[in-house]
Structures are given as C-alpha cells and as structure tokens.
Amino acid sequence: MLGILLIVMIVAVLVTLEHFWGPMGTLRKPLPCAHGVVGACKICWAEVERNSRLDGFRQQWERVRRAEIKHLSQARLSSSEAYFAMEPRQFEDAVMRVFRKLGYRVNQTVYVADGGKDAIAWKNKKKYVIECKRYGSRSSSGRRDLQILLAAKHDVEADAAIFVTTGRLTAPAIAYAKDNDIECYDKDSFPNLINHAYGSDEDFSMAKTICMECGKEAWLPLSNDSAASGNALHDGSWHEVKTTIYVSQLKYPDLDLDTPWCQEHQVPMRRVNGYRGEFWGCPEYPNCKNTGGSATRPPEVVEAERIARRAELMRVYSDMSEPLREQWRKKVDLELDELSKLGLRSDRTPEDIAAYIAAKYMQGR
C-alpha cells in the first residue's frame, strides 16, 4: 500500500515539473498574448487601463442616478399635479411631508384601521388630527367623512382637525366643516397648500446622467414609462448616454443613497429581518427574491437614532400641559403597577417615565 502511494506521489511531482519546465530541464517560455507579444504588451495594458476607467464611470453613473432619483422626487413634490397621480399610501406619505415642511411635528398612524385619522401633528403647542383621501377628480367626500374625522379629533383630544382630499367636497360637507371648524383642502384648494409649503414649482423634466465612455455629465428629458438616451460631445466625438430614470420612479424623496437597488424591478431594497439577521430584500418579494447582502446597521447609528428619538419624546412632553401630563401619568402608573404585579417592572427614572408618557400620548391612547 505504501509503495502504491509513493508511486502516485512521484508521478504527481513529475507532471508538475513537466508543466513548468521544458523537457530539457529549462524553464518553459511564456506564451505570447493575442497580439503576438511575449511579455508586457502595450495594447493589452491599454485595454486593462481602459476597462478600469470604464468601471469607474459606471460606478459614478450609478451614484448620479440614485442622487437624481432622490433630487427629482423632492422636486416633484413641489408640483400639485404630481399628487393627483399618486397611489393612496404614497399620497398620504407625501402629504405628511408637506405638513412637516410647514413646521408641523407629524406622527403617522398605521395605514389600515387608523380610526379615521392618518396622522397626529403638533404645531405652536396645538394638537391636530389629519385625514387624507386620495380620490379621483370626479369623486367627492361627504359629510360622513368629516364626521368620522371629528370623532377622531375628540377621541385623541386634539385642538383642531385637517381634511385633505384630491376630490371634491359636497355642499353638506362644506357646511359641516364650517360649523365644526375643520380645515379642508380639496381639488381646487389643494394646490394652495402645496405652494404654501414649497413656493414655486421646481423643474423635474430633465435628469442628469454620466457618459459611461468619458465620464462627462449630460442631461436627458424624462419620459413617463421608459428609459431615455441621447448623445454627448467629448473631444470632437459623440458618445451615447442613457438614464434609467422615468417619471413613475419619482417616489423616493427620502432615499438613502447607500441602499442597494434591485436591478430587475428598478426599486430600492428594504431591510428584512431574517432568521440569520437583517438583510436587504426586494419589496416585490415573493415575486422577486433578489437580495443585497447584510443590512445590519452600525451600533453608532442605532445609538444616534435612540438619542434622537429620546430627545423628540422629551420635547413632546415639555409641550404637554400639566393637566394633560397628570392624566397620562395616571394611565401609565396603572400599566406599570400591572407589570410590577407580574414581576416584569424594572427600575425607571423620571425621565424614562416622561418619555414613555410622551410616546403613549403621540399614539393617541
């Protein structure tokens, strides 16, 4: 057995030596490249450098593309016409962004079963309840919609109510809003709200891109449902440039430029909690199972978010009136007493309790 193993090892060594050394014991000469040059070939090196340069241009093109999607998405929100083409959930998010721009501190509710309110907002020590309806231009909101909003206002003890719709208000609804001091924006007055927040419309008809041949900037017009292409002049020659941005993509005003992108569906990925930890996944799952690697956030980012959230809750608590604080303090004390009976209550500082009260208050409970 040892003899067979020894013979196999000797054969393997001889084959290796034959590969690297010629039959006469001299080092085998390197083979020539595709251009017939042995050794360093200037043409080959030029191709390597060009490919490296093109890779840099492609990466730059992708960075510019994402930045333009974010910039144009923000610019699009300055045009009231854009809101009429949005889906209901996207419309709600965009309207809440409008109120934040107007100086409101906005806390959105869940998208379904929201109890007649899409958000609770605060401004100048006043509490507001906001409801949005993304209707067609021929659809109308009636008195019942405003009655539900008014009930939500009383339920969360708000000071005022705001109703926003892309449709129209019926005559009974207009009268009801006037009698109950409900601020309303419909198809005709909604553009005034947008202009108040953003001022004049920004241009979002052109997108900046990068030529992947020379790295030169170029601007291309946006189309509704397809990519655009054109030409850019560089050193006396024309290069074809393109962009994969189109109007229907302009819905990511808060896009994180480092977020991976699903190339198949042309949408930014989202964080998903898997059994192995967080990862980036396509929002079109289960139809798309593309992933973008680990999505675990650095500890310092998580800590910064926690500190910012705590500061926001303390600001809410300081804006609450003393009777309101006392009312919520009693509710929170009952919850903590129940936890204490179950042996689950831990030591809480006065600041912890204040932050908890503010969180409960913002939830409208």
Can you describe what's shown?
With about 375 residues, this protein is α+β, with helices and mostly antiparallel strands. Among the domains are: about 80-200, 3-Layer(aba) Sandwich (Trna Endonuclease, Chain: A, domain 1); about 300-360. The protein is about 45% helix and about 20% strand. Strands 1-2-3-5-7 form a five-stranded mixed β-sheet, with helices on both faces. Strands 14-15-16 form a three-stranded antiparallel β-sheet, with no helix packed on it. The radius of gyration is 31 Å and the shape is extended.
**Distance N terminus to C terminus?**
82 Å
Percentage of helical residues?
A: 40-55%
CATH fold topology of the domain at 80-198: Trna Endonuclease, Chain: A, domain 1
Report mean pLDDT, rounded to a whole number: 80
Report the count of strand segments.
16
Low-confidence stretches: none
H and E string:
HHHHEEEEHEEHEHEEEEEEEEEHHH
* Biggest β-sheet strands, sense, barrel: 5 strands, mixed
How are strands sequenced across the largest beta sheet?
A: 1-2-3-5-7
Proportion of strand residues: 15-25%
- Computed over alpha carbons, the radius of gyration is 31 Å
Q: Structural class of the helices, strands and pairings?
A: alpha+beta
How many individual helices? 10
Supply the CATH architecture of the domain at 80-198.
Answer: 3-Layer(aba) Sandwich
Query: What general form does the structure show?
Result: extended
Report the CATH C-level class of the domain at 80-198. Alpha Beta
